[in-house]
Amino acid sequence: MFESDFITTALILLIVVRLAVFMLIVPIHESAHGLMAHWFGDDTAKDAGRLTLNPFAHLDIAGFVLMLFLGVGWAKPVPVNPSKFKKRRLGMAMVSLAGPLSNLIAAFLGAAVCAVIVSVSSASDYTVLELKEGMSAAQIAAMILYVFVEINVSLAVFNLIPLPPLDGFNILRSFMPVKFDMWVFKNYRAINTAFIILLILSTHIYELQLPYLYARGIAETLIWLSVSWIPSLFGF
């Protein structure tokens, strides 16, 4: 039977795509941080060899495991020296924003390619994350791109949460007083541990996920709306 010969469950498909996202997109995400820092006058990331697409240079074990099983995670933070920025607060905010923005750009590109494939081939049912007998190559490709978009949007929204060690928190820090920075530095390990515990609890307490899911849903809708004009190019 088809089910015994091919991958028929969404779980394995998701893990494979999540691994691909880590290997391809996470290095872009982290390099985007370093490149933005470079543009603002700080070459710390460049000197540390972090402006690279080698995924192992950015590997964080905990973030990688969570990425595989939950679809959200993080990499090893890119080293940044804000004292080298000409405009410190703006530099920190832009460096932190660069990573999630790279994910949203990747999501848009993935959605655009998916829209082209669906328009040209009239593929359908690609949003159902399960391989079925008789699916065309176009349907499978569209399904993988659909998951690719979902994961990139998830990473962008997740990393914009204003909690350490995520980018959203560093954006928040850019507009906070020095005393706040000192308090964060003093209590960073405890704050980080509390965040991981909260993340684990959210897998069992649905209500904790609601703000994130709501924001992710809006972002996904906007991404797909941004490519809704593509079918008209092919007469649909």
Summarize this, please?
This protein has 11 helices and no strands. By secondary structure, the protein is mostly helical.
Percentage of residues in DSSP E strands: under 5%
Average pLDDT confidence is 82
Q: Using only CA atoms, what is the Rg?
A: 19 Å
Please count the beta strands (DSSP E, at least 2 residues each).
Answer: 0
Task: Give the proportion of residues in helices.
Answer: 55-70%
Order of helices and strands: HHHHHHHHHHH
* Count of all domains: 1
Shape: globular
- The poorly predicted ranges are 1-7
Terminal-residue CA separation: 36 Å
- Sheet with most strands: none
- How would you classify the helix and strand content by structural class? mainly alpha
Helix tally equals 11
Structure keywords:
236 residues; mainly alpha
Task: Report what the structure shows.
By secondary structure, the protein is an all-alpha fold. The chain is built from eleven helices and no strands. The protein has helices spanning 2-5, 10-39, 44-47, 61-70, 88-121, 137-159, 167-173, 178-186, 188-202, 210-226, 230-233. The chain is globular.
